[in-house]
Amino acid sequence: MESLKTILYFSIFRYPLTLEEIHSYTNHNDIAETENELTNLESEEIIKKIDDFYVYNKDLDSVPKRLKGNLEAQKAMLIAKKRANFIAKFPYVKAVGISGSLSKSYYDKNSDIDFFIITDSNKLWICRTILILFKKIFLLNSKKYFCVNYFISTSQLEIEEQNRFTATELKTLIPMHGKEVFEEFYKANDWVAAYFSKFISDLSQVTNTQKPFLTKSIEFIFNSNIGQFFDNLFKLITLKKWKSKFKFLNQDDFKIALKSTQNISKHHPSNFQKKVILALNSKIEEVRNNFNIILQKENV
Predict the structure, then answer these.
(1) CB burial of residue 205 (10 Å; 0-12, 13-18, 19+)
(2) Would you tell me how many other CB atoms lie within 10 Å of the CB of residue 244?
(3) C-beta of residue 124 within 8 angstroms of C-beta of residue 90
(4) 140 pLDDT band (50/70/90 cuts)?
(5) If 0-12 CB within 10 Å is exposed, 13-18 middle and 19+ buried, where does residue 45 land?
(6) Radius of gyration from C-alpha coordinates of the chain
(7) Which among 172, 144, 138 has a CA at the least distance from the CA of 76?
(8) Range(s) of the chain covered by CATH 1.10.10.10
(9) Contacts for 187-196: CB closer than 8 Å, 24+ residues apart
(10) CB 151 within 8 A of CB 265
(11) Residues near 240 by beta carbon (within 8 Å), at least 6 away in sequence
(12) Helix (H, G, I), strand (E, B), or coil: what is residue 94?
């Protein structure tokens, strides 16, 4: 029942999928297998097909919601590409990708444009601090079109939390700049194939950005012992601020939602990953109770 778990997962976001989309998330070799599975689910009235989309729990309004979000995403993507190109020129940025809802071709008035950033080794916190200062000073701290909340460095390309949520995020990530770095990134995260065996990263449109003189000058200054000092300092300052600001998070949640190591910086205080996995497991339990279908629950 791989198709059903995929439909349940995206129903959390009220985002119905097409046959081709659902098939891409399964380990079925032939799309006919997926189609047959969906037909059986329809006959048991677990899902319903509306036009080209498969809907769980009779959420018929999710179809026009998706279609409207797809149209808005086309406009937002034009902005996102320009911002990604801009971010790629910042000091120590090695690669930039578009993540979040926009990477799944959805955008609405409540959405942000999320960027996934890979930095140079041992310079993550300098890179992050410069980008955050730019956002605060020049964008008045608005994250609407400039949400930079997930950084990793080239020293640790493998994503530590390996579950359906992170696998989906990697599968839908849209690499924009840093082709060679993204090649290494996907090699380091080949565990995604355990969830989605047909996934192949498409790097054909990924470019490499020429750094401007100012960026090269900043990098020259910090490519020394002083750079390591400031990288550690910025990390300590940020971590101290977060521990004070997000006291409501327990230690385990803090370590995941606001992971702060030499090579990783996450700023997800709502712990969205945990919320999504728990919501999926709740739907899996609902299906078991209502239709006597047993699906394996996911790890948080």
Answers:
(1) exposed
(2) 8
(3) no
(4) very high
(5) exposed
(6) 20
(7) 144
(8) 2-60+276-291
(9) 188/157, 188/158, 189/157, 189/158, 189/159, 191/158, 191/162, 191/167, 192/167, 194/167, 195/164, 195/167, 195/168, 195/171, 196/24, 196/25, 196/26, 196/27, 196/167, 196/171
(10) yes
(11) none
(12) strand
The sheet carrying 147-153 orders its strands as 174-177, 93-99, 114-119, 147-153, 264-266
Sign of CA dihedral 170, 114, 219, 236: negative
Torsion of CA 184, 272, 80, 195, to 10 degrees: 40
Burial of residue 137 (number of CB atoms within 10 Å: 0-12, 13-18, 19+): exposed
Find tokens 């939390």 and name the residue.
161
Q: Does residue 58 carry a pLDDT above 90? A: no
Name residue 207's amino acid. Answer: T
In the structure, what pLDDT confidence band is assigned to residue 94 with cuts at 50, 70 and 90?
Answer: very high
Separation of alpha carbons 45 and 28, rounded Å: 22
Considering the four listed CATH numbers 3.90.700.10, 3.30.420.380, 1.10.10.10, 3.30.230.10, the one that applies to the domain covering 2-60+276-291 is: 1.10.10.10
Confidence of residue 127 (pLDDT cuts 50, 70, 90): very high
- The 3 state secondary structure assigned to 186-222 is HHHCHHHHHCCCCCCCCCCCCECCCCCHHHHHHHHHH
Which of the four pLDDT bands, split at 50, 70 and 90, describes residue 82?
A: very high
Q: What is the pLDDT of residue 130?
A: 98
Which CA distances in Å does 246 have to 161, 250, 274? 21, 9, 16
